[in-house]
Amino acid sequence: MIARVFGVASAALLPVLLVAADCGARPPVPDRPSVSAAPSAAPPAGCAGGPRLKAGRHELEFGGGTRAFLLSLPEGDGPHPVLLNLHGLGSTARQQAAYSRLPEVGARRGYIVATPQVAEDRLAWTLPHTYGPDDTGFLGALLDRLEQRLCVDRRREFAAGLSYGGGMATAMVCGLEGRLAGAAAVGGVNIVQPCRQPRPTTLVAFHGTADRVVPYEGGHPLRNSSGDLRKLADLVTLQPVEQVTGGWAGALGCASPPARSSPVPGVLLRTWKGCAEGASVRLYAIDGGGHTWPGPIEVPRLGATNRDLDATRLILDAFDAAPPT
Predict the structure, then answer these.
(1) 113-to-98, 101, 157, 301, 316 alpha-carbon distances in Å
(2) Is pTM beyond 0.85 here?
(3) In tens digits, what is the pLDDT along the chain, a chain of 325 residues?
(4) Do residues 229 and 239 lie in contact, with contact meaning Cβ atoms separated by under 8 Å?
(5) How far apart are alpha carbons 214 and 164 in whole angstroms?
(6) In this structure, are strands 267-272 and 259-261 parallel, antiparallel, or unpaired?
(7) 3-state SS record for the chain
(8) Are the beta carbons of 247 and 190 closer than 8 angstroms?
(9) What angle do CA 127, 128, 133 make, to 5 degrees?
């Protein structure tokens, strides 16, 4: 949802907002996804030797088209955990890689980090069982490719994203049928409602209370838009961030109420523990924060950035501690 920041014409957002409006009328992540993603007990083929993928840009044939992804690799033979790093609406894989810093920091922490690009001529991911390219199937196929050509720890696969990419990451909790051990959303956890009967999954969310693109308190998105885009944004009603995060905690069987703490000034952390099979749910509410990724990089047009909180490090910390699937 950061298309305006990167110069995409507002009119180009209209089809995506219509899809988002349609999602509000029914559960966006039904119990039956389009792919069967539960990994088998056999070790991944990539651990047995043979040619392996190298760091850089790669392409994957899927759904009658060619899809691209960027790949960052850790040192060592593995098996390594995998992290899918999903960009926001109107952004690109390269922008997400640079802004999130997950490829660089994640690789140093031992993660294989794949940053995929949405389909050609598309601005955003297709949520499960909505209209457009089968991105749920694509992300499942991307994980398959990584397992085949790298030594992957298949019980430790994760997804994280910014804005619409964050919504897609949480949608994959049920979209990939329990394949993910954890998901993280920065500025996007309330784009998708909690799915029914999720398998135990660790969730972490970051959201600025002054976010005007995906508002913390819910309601209509893209608060600074005008014209036709404003009319279409008014068709979309988001739920409050705290309500959606609490819904995930309830669906995952976490104890309530959450514990509260302040890891840095201006940030309230809610932590739900006692979740199914050792999972946890965390929500970092950034007082006055905009539609931004907490950390060292500032994008003033998106609002204030809390530089004392490093979302990249905290996401990886949460995933390090997540129980394997």
Answers:
(1) 13, 10, 10, 28, 11
(2) yes
(3) 443 333 333 333 444 444 443 443 333 333 333 333 444 445 677 898 888 999 999 999 999 999 999 999 999 999 999 999 999 999 999 999 999 999 999 999 999 999 999 999 999 999 998 999 999 999 999 999 999 999 999 999 999 999 999 999 999 999 999 999 999 999 999 999 999 899 999 999 999 999 999 999 999 999 999 998 899 899 999 999 999 999 999 999 999 899 999 999 999 999 999 999 999 999 999 999 999 999 999 999 999 999 999 999 999 999 999 999 9
(4) no
(5) 9
(6) antiparallel
(7) CCCCCCCCCHHHHHHHHHHHHHHCCCCCCCCCCCCCCCCCCCCCHHHHCCCCCCCEEEEEEECCEEEEEEEECCCCCCCEEEEEEECCCCCCHHHHHHHHCHHHHHHHCCCEEEEECCCCCCCCCCCCCCCCCCHHHHHHHHHHHHHHHCCEEEEEEEEEEECHHHHHHHHHHHHCCCCCCEEEEECCHHHCCCCCCCCCCEEEEEEECCCCCCCCCCECCCCCCCHHHHHHHCCCCECCHHHHHHHHHHHCCCCCCCEEECCCCCEEEEEECCCHHHCCEEEEEECCECCCCCCCCCCHHHCECCCCCCHHHHHHHHHHHCCCC
(8) no
(9) 70
Using CA atoms, how far apart are residues 241 and 246, in angstroms rounded to an integer? 8
Cβ neighbours of 103 (radius 10 Å)? 24
Rounded to whole angstroms, how far apart are CA atoms 235 and 22? 9
In contact, 24 and 237? CB cutoff 8 Å:
yes
Instruction: State how far the Cα of 307 lies from the Cα of 3, in Å rounded to an integer.
Output: 23
Q: Are 211 and 187 in contact (CB under 8 A)?
A: yes
CB 84 within 8 A of CB 143: yes
